[in-house]
Design brief:
Number of strands of chain A: 2
Number of helices of chain A: 14
Shape of chain B: globular
CATH superfamily of one domain in chain B: MetI-like
Strand content of chain B: under 5%
CATH architecture of one domain in chain B: Orthogonal Bundle
Helix content of chain B: over 70%
Distance between the termini of chain A: 51 Å
Oligomer: heterodimer
Radius of gyration of chain B: 23 Å
CATH class of one domain in chain B: Mainly Alpha
Helix content of chain A: over 70%
Strand order of the largest sheet of chain A: 1-2
Number of domains of chain A: 1
Largest interface: A-B, 98 and 95 residues
Strand content of chain A: under 5%
Order of helices and strands of chain B: HHHHHHHHHHH
Shape of chain A: globular
CATH class of chain A: Mainly Alpha
Largest sheet of chain B: none
């Protein structure tokens, strides 16, 4: 009986929808998405294969733009970006997991305050954090003064414009992306499973390895890719903190795109680095799965 | 959770404490020096409000602030409205489960790629860069959050309420405004806050799609960073930190079940 009513209501809804409201009522979002997201992406992809002559005339299919980037310096740029993204994601994971663990199981009364303190910097303009780290890492900055006062160093160290400062800023900025998914899965974690594991004689380390980590694997993967993918294309942090010693994908893309005549080369390079990103992300995905499975054995 | 060893417990606590030190030491140093009367490389001399006064009398800064506000408000409004329309379509029996996948891309692809493809598109369609293009770009980012989050909450609603309303003679529009929307309101508000703050703080899309006419807050801060350290930025940081703490507090106090991820 109830089922039948549902069917009737569904019929009624359809009649209302098609009679009273034009079919397109829910579609603006989808049209918007198609027009301004997928169309530009398609243009980007197609544009990388098309040669333009003088005054923007079409000259047909070409692989020249893609081949232009098949050279060692560009592979190096992509390689360094992959290393940067992987290093950042791993570091974030190593810091985030204990933090999420603490927030979920041991935080108790201060848990909400700690969560609040985690999100506030995350919701503040990140250029201001770059600025704050300038302050700390400068030659006459806080860290140098502090280390000199302690007598650990005598000459100020140039922390800025190095891989070190880039890495610090990356971890600082991306940490919440890793903590929040892991925290929200650990918070819902059935703690009876942990108790059962202890009751059955497992040590803390074994419980960690064989119960907690494998069962939070989904959120670990979510966090990993929330960090890995954007940090591969990260443009602002290396640009501001890294000096010009090492170029990353983001800066190369920006360089070509914002140049006067090299726009479509930039598109081609974006396409190549996206392929590299997809391949490396798939490898990471498989690798994390494999490692977590090995944990259980 | 007893068998956890004392050693592991202390290690965990130390890690958490040092993580928070890592997060907050730079900010605290920055805030302290926003009250210092001599600009930075000098050590602490004396307390002053001078930089705050200069901040509030800086014209270009407030123009950039206003632009960012306009962009963030409009892109939030557009993406929330588009999301609501999509939900209305779903309440009328439209199937949008599959269309949902279309919107995941916005968050998955690196922002630089999104910015680059939009820039190419704008120049191909000869749309002049400015506030409008920025609003458009930020709306895309907003849709990536709005649609999955609102739809997830919509699916958790008790659909019998909606059917009861229809059976009792309300029109679909009445049902939507008096039943569905009020049930979705907490999620809508938190999502709107999230989209607002993401648009307001966005840097990469603004950097590529702004052109030379529209200055946003991020771009203004960038230009200040490039011209060297100035205590006015410290004062600005203090004020923006207070603003974002207020927003986070609102976000928490709503206690909706919207997850950040």
């Amino acid at each position: 009986m109830a089922k039948r009513e549902c069917g009737a209501v569904r019929e009624m809804k359809k009649i209302f929808l098609f009679r009273d409201y034009p079919f397109a009522i829910g579609i603006p979002a989808i049209i918007f998405q198609m027009l301004f997201f997928y169309l530009p992406l398609a243009i980007l992809v197609v544009g990388s294969f098309i040669a333009f002559g003088e005054e923007g005339r079409l000259q047909g299919f070409t692989l020249e733009k893609l081949l232009f980037f098949m050279r060692a310096p560009y592979f190096k740029v992509i390689g360094y970006s992959l290393l940067l993204a992987s290093g950042n994601a791993l570091l974030c994971f190593l810091i985030a997991y204990p933090l999420a663990y603490y927030l979920a199981f041991r935080g108790k009364r201060i848990k909400n305050i700690l969560l609040f303190l985690l999100i506030v910097p995350f919701w503040t303009n990140f250029l201001l954090h770059v600025y704050a780290w300038f302050f700390v890492l400068e030659r006459q900055g806080f860290l140098n003064i502090f280390l000199q006062k302690l007598g650990l160093i005598h000459e100020p160290i140039a922390f800025l414009n190095s891989l070190f400062s880039v890495m610090v800023m990356m971890v600082y900025y991306y940490l919440p992306f890793m903590v929040l998914p892991i925290y929200s899965s650990l918070e819902k974690f059935d703690t009876r499973l942990i108790e059962a594991s202890y009751d059955l004689g497992a040590s803390w380390r074994q419980t960690m390895k064989k119960v907690l980590l494998p069962l939070s694997s989904r959120s670990i993967k979510t966090g990993f890719f929330l960090v890995y993918i954007p940090s591969f294309g990260e443009f602002a942090i290396p640009e501001l903190m890294g000096g010009d010693r090492q170029m990353f994908v983001g800066s190369v893309v920006a360089h070509y795109i914002l140049g006067d005549t090299t726009g479509s080369l930039g598109a081609a390079f974006t396409l190549i680095s996206c392929c590299a990103l997809i391949i490396s992300a798939t490898i990471w995905f498989k690798l994390i799965d494999y490692l977590l499975k090995r944990c259980v054995k | 959770m007893k068998p956890i060893t004392a050693l592991a417990r202390t290690a965990n606590l130390t890690l958490v404490a040092s993580t928070y030190l890592f997060l907050y030491v730079p900010l605290i140093v920055l805030l302290v020096f926003s009250f210092n009367s001599t600009p930075f490389p000098a050590p602490w001399t004396s307390f002053t409000w001078r930089w705050y006064h200069e901040l509030f009398s800086s014209g270009p800064l407030w123009e950039a602030f206003r632009n960012s506000l306009i962009i963030a408000l409009s892109s939030t409004f557009i993406s929330i409205t588009a999301g609501a329309l999509l939900i209305f379509y779903a309440t009328q029996g439209g199937r949008i489960g599959k269309a949902l996948v279309l919107f995941y891309g916005n968050l998955i692809i690196p922002e630089v790629v999104l910015a680059v493809s939009l820039l190419g598109f704008f120049s191909l369609a000869s749309i002049p860069l400015g506030l409008a293009t920025l609003i458009l770009a930020h709306t895309l980012l907003g849709l990536g959050f709005v649609i999955p989050l609102i739809y997830a909450r919509f699916q958790e609603l008790d659909h019998r309420l909606h059917e009861a309303s229809l059976v009792l003679g309300a029109t679909p529009l009445q049902t939507f405004f008096k039943v569905t929307l009020p049930l979705l309101r907490p999620t809508m508000i938190t999502t709107a806050l999230l989209v607002f703050i993401i648009s307001f703080d966005d840097f990469v899309l603004s950097y590529f799609c702004a052109g030379s006419s529209a200055q946003t807050l991020s771009l203004y801060i960038l230009s200040m960073l490039r011209s060297g350290i100035s205590p006015i930025v410290n004062a600005l940081t203090a004020i923006l930190l207070i603003l974002s703490s207020a927003l986070v507090l609102i976000f928490f106090s709503l206690r909706s079940r919207t997850k950040l991820f």
